[in-house]
Amino acid sequence: MSIAVFSEKQQMILQLLVQEKGGMTVDQFAQPLKISRSAIHQHMTILERDGYLVRSATIQTGGRPGTAYVLTDKGVHLFPKHYSLFADMLINLIREKIGSEGLVEYLHELGVSLSETKKDALKNKSLSEQIEMTVFIMQELGYEARLELGKPGELPMIDAYNCIFHNLAYKNDEVCELDMSLLSSLLDSKIQRVCCMATGGKRCRFKILPSDNVNPVK
């Protein structure tokens, strides 16, 4: 995954836009940035090209009308959130209310529900093809997922080099149930977790154990 690197002026543009939800024009950036309109246009072009902002509307600023720029969702997500804090509090609250086993059941249901939103992409494909597509689905969800080829005649395994629930999983091993149920439901197969980062592994590795009624290849 590439990591975005912004110049000082581009960071200022993004910070100004997160404060001005209605957007700003190039002229409105001129004073705080203290650079020419041409230089501002260059920065805006780069940020727009990379999907961090978008042109919104033409607004009157006291002088000539100008095109307003606003942050996209991608731009908004550059700024810190405290999702992990609230998720950790929620996980602990659920465990206190219904116990560890009940929490696992909830996370299992969540993984199955998530899989249902993605299953159409796997229809009419062999299990090997479904595994390849599942890797793409995991990548869309934020996993650094890769196929790991097994021995001849064996299905490939799935490696995840990051955990999208990193802090949660290290504190709450029940959270790993979400990964397991997601993969199991997507592939309609039993999943064996060969290694796990939450227990000291360098990656999370998932081995697919096909059901008797599933053909591994087409």
How does this structure look, described?
This protein has about 220 residues and is α+β, with helices and mostly antiparallel strands. It folds into two domains: about 10-75, Winged helix-like DNA-binding domain superfamily/Winged helix DNA-binding domain (Arc Repressor Mutant, subunit A, Orthogonal Bundle); about 85-210, Muramoyl-pentapeptide Carboxypeptidase, domain 2. Helix content is about 45%, strand content about 15%. It is built from eight helices and six strands. The chain has helices at about 10-20, 25-35, 35-50, 75, 85-115, 125-140, 165-170, 175-185, and strands spanning about 55-60, 65-70, 145-150, 155-160, 190-195, 205-210. The strands form two sheets. It has a four-stranded antiparallel beta sheet, with helices on one face. Strands 1-2 form a two-stranded antiparallel sheet. A hairpin with an 8-residue loop joins β3 and β4. α2 crosses α3 (about 35-50) and α5 packs parallel to α8. It is elongated and about 70 Å long. The two termini are about 30 Å apart.
